[in-house]
What we know:
The complex is a heterodimer of chains A (about 120) and B (about 425).
Chain A lengths: L6 E5 L3 H12 L4 E5 L2 H10 L4 E4 L8 H10 L6 E5 L4 H8 L5 E4 L8 H5 L5
Parallel strand pairs in A: 1-2, 1-3, 3-4, 4-5
Helix pairs in contact in A: 2-3
Chain B lengths: L1 H96 L3 E6 L4 E4 L1 H7 L3 H4 L4 H4 L1 E4 L2 E5 L2 H7 L4 E2 L4 E4 L5 E12 L5 E10 L1 H36 L5 H31 L8 E4 H9 L3 H7 L2 E5 L5 E4 L1 H17 L6 E9 L2 E8 L33 H11 L3 E7 L3 E9 L1
Parallel strand pairs in B: 10-12
Antiparallel strand pairs in B: 1-2, 1-8, 3-4, 3-6, 5-7, 6-7, 7-8, 9-11, 12-13, 13-15, 14-15
Amino acid sequence: MIKQSKQVLIAEDDTFLTNIMGKVFKQHGIRVVLVNNGQEALEALKREVPDVLLLDLLMPVLDGFGVMKAMKEKHVQCPIVVVSNVGDKVTRDKCKAFHVKAYLVKSDMDDDALWPAIEKYLK
Amino acid sequence: MSKKTTISASDNMALKLKFLAKEKEAVRRKLVVTAKKLAIKAKALAVTAKEKESVRRRLVVTAKKLAMLYQTLERKVIDRTQDLEQAKAKDEAILSSIGDGVFAIDTKGTLILFNAAASGISGYSKREASGKPFHKVLRFMMEDKPNVASHDFIEQALKGKKAKMANHTILLRKDGTTVPVDDAATPIFGPDKKIIGAVVVFRDVSKECAVDRAKTEFVSLASHQLRSPLTSIRWILSTLKREKLTEEQRTMVSTAHEASIGMAAMIKKMLMISYVEEGGVAPEIVQVDLPRLLDKVSLLHDSHRQKKGVELTVQCPEDLHVRTDEQLLIEILSNLLSNAYKYTPKGGKVSVCATKEGEKIRIAVSDTGCGIPFAEQRKIPGKFFRASNITSPAESGTGIGLYMVYNIARLIGGTISFVSQENKGTTFSLLFPS
């Protein structure tokens, strides 16, 4: 199967935010897969490895760290950008250990700042 | 013939008598001389005896004085010994009543003092500890490296420097369990200013650690709970701003959007302060291209600057590279710049100027603003300080930014200073190692 266009997987439990985020990427012709928890993210990863994974940390069922741990164990590789409202250094350092590409704090940015921050992983 | 013979016999006798008399006279004379000599000697002896008597008397007096002195001395020694014993007992009582563990070592590291609290915390009795090398009894370690002794602070003290224990130090107790401890080691100097040992004070900080953990968790959770709905508000408003709106609607949405941005910045600052105060922020030192960094910084709060019509100039020598924490440096300058814009009237000037001062770098942020009243300058950098001459309701502030600036500056080994004149302007300077 030939990959049609770039894909972004967005794992975020707040459906309102996933919709806004999805809209941002769709505007740029990127295929968007939206999931609302870590478990769903792992299932989506099984189906297709995206070009970038936007990952929230605090999610029901399985949190962001659970997703990153499972990906590491299963050797699933794709650029991960954490998009969370937890911004402390301990959490950031924990994410660094999983080689995340970037760490964005949602409340410190506008929705339209997402594209400039993620664009480079989709080229 | 016979008469002649008789005469001659008597003559002989007379001669003999004469001779005897002469001899006697000679003896008498000798005796007189001897008697005279004896008399002189006797005189001399009499003088010596007198002298001796006087010396004897003097000796007796001196001996009496000495005896008295000795008695006084003995009494003084007894008193002093009692004083010393009392003082020692007092010192020991104080030492054992100190809630913190205290122990002292000599230059070889042998324990020469070990108080009750030190026993209580470590589990070793005074008898078990005294006279032993301290590292055989007390083992300080880092929380994340529980197999490696961490005695740097004690070695520093033995070199003459007061040294604090590193954050997250734990002590291995006699029963094999560990306890989080904190405090410091101080050198002990002898009368000739030579180091004769070190005294270490340590205390059990398990309760503080638990409180810290709870506080961090609370702050983290609270900030997340505040940030989540704020994100929704901010993103909705940001989306709305791009829609077709009437002028009135646009103003309302923009105001609300800016308020949400301000609120997000506030939460970020509160969190930052909380982490800085806890010592939770460790600087990440990297090579920083200062002119590029200042270019970046000059774009911060640019809409605020344009709105106020404030002119910004940036001066920095090309190729000025420093080794520091980039994010923390940006945080400091961002706050100073934001304050400069805030308190400078329309049409004013703000400048950022970086210079090299020996091994250090100075970055000065100057404005032509309202200044800080002289009487209030000593209140800086108090938390929530706001100068009384800020009357414009448009310039909201909480007095937390500057407090944070001072704290962050300390983290990168820098200091903040300022000069300010009311109605003329203010210059805040950051001086930090390059």
